[in-house]
Amino acid sequence: MDQQTIDIVKATVPVLEEKGDAITVSFYNHLFSEHPELYNVFNQTHQKQQKQQRALAQAVLAAAKHIDKLEAILGSVKGIAHKHRSIGVKPEHYPIVGENLLWAIKDVLGDAATDEIMQAWEIAYGEIAKVFIAIEDALREEVKNRHGWNGYLPFKVDRKVEESSVITSFYLKPVNGQELPEFEAGQYISIKLDIPGEKYTHIRQYSLSDAPGTGYFRISVKREDARDPFPEGVVTNYLHESVKVGDVLQISAPAGDFTLDHTPDKPLVLISGGVGQTPMMSMLKQAVNQTPERNITWVHAAVNGTTHAFAKDVVKLDQQHKNLQTFFCYEAPTESDQERCLYAKTGYIDGEWLAQVIIDKNADYYFCGPKPFMKAIYTILKHWEIEDENIHFEFFGPQDQLVEKETATTGA
Questions:
Q1: Which of 120, 160, 255, 312 is surrounded by the fewest CB atoms within 10 Å?
Q2: 136 is catalytic
Q3: Domain range 3-147, its CATH number among 3.90.550.10, 1.10.1840.10, 3.40.30.10, 1.10.490.10
Q4: How far is residue 166's CA from residue 307's CA, in Å, rounded to a whole number?
Q5: How large is the C-alpha radius of gyration of the chain?
Q6: Where is this region: Reductase (predicted)?
Q7: Is 398 assigned to a binding site?
Q8: 393 labeled part of a ligand binding site
């Protein structure tokens, strides 16, 4: 890109900050009207909640700000690229996206979108697409070369285990009996389902909730509230209610860059809320197996003991590993919880209590959970002046904001 193109794109940043959401809403509406087959790829619940629209607006804005130094946003790009590879986005999709994005910019900005601006954005989008395609091609090639895996493969549900009143685990094994690929603790798989009564295919990502090397993939799925006006439960509730042992599911190879650093020079702190503990369980098991000498603090928040999955597993690990300290926080403990005295705190995790249970703050922090929970933990760590390189987190679904003017990215 020449300097003039860079200057024009950067000059559009204030407009994108003001009208970015409108542009992305227009983009998706036009995209689906022109290419309804893409309903089979995009999460329509996130569309209704406008999560994908906000996520795309953030990504376009970040690209415009750093158009002359796209390497500055590679961390975010890699996280998105992992998801694209996982769900099956191909290089041929990028021209379609570009055409519709440019249409949306013109649609929203009207006469303000001059030929000069549109030409600059066409060039800029081409450069942005090249970055994404290159990373995604490399990820596909890695999966193919290491594991001989291309696209989705059939997996049989080997076991189905109720972990709590709201969370059920599915143990998955390849139908053809092939050896499972190694994965990194914290990664996820995509599941593609054709659900009876649903017009389009649904694809969802679920974190792997057990350690690598077990001979199976395990996902642990929370049943969603059907009363939610935008229910996430189209897929999750189908898994709970309709998928049985012996059924076959289409699954893509593990993906994601929210992974554990095994360097044991710092203590490890794993903090989770609700079903957000699924990637953390994988991390915990891998950490105690590979770096048993590392000091590990496990903190988990749940509504109460009935919704708390994996409590027995974590307590057992605590008893087996002297360098592991575990703490549970229950929002509304039951009488049975009070009798068992399993939890360390009632209510919500706060900075004062967290400072008491984390003895050495000079640690690596990983956390995952619902958005309000994530905001609270992030705010606490920033108040403690923890370095960004030691803060690692992941949202379920599209990336969003942890704090105002602070874009959430996978990793530090």
A1: 312
A2: yes
A3: 1.10.490.10
A4: 6
A5: 22
A6: 148-412
A7: yes
A8: no
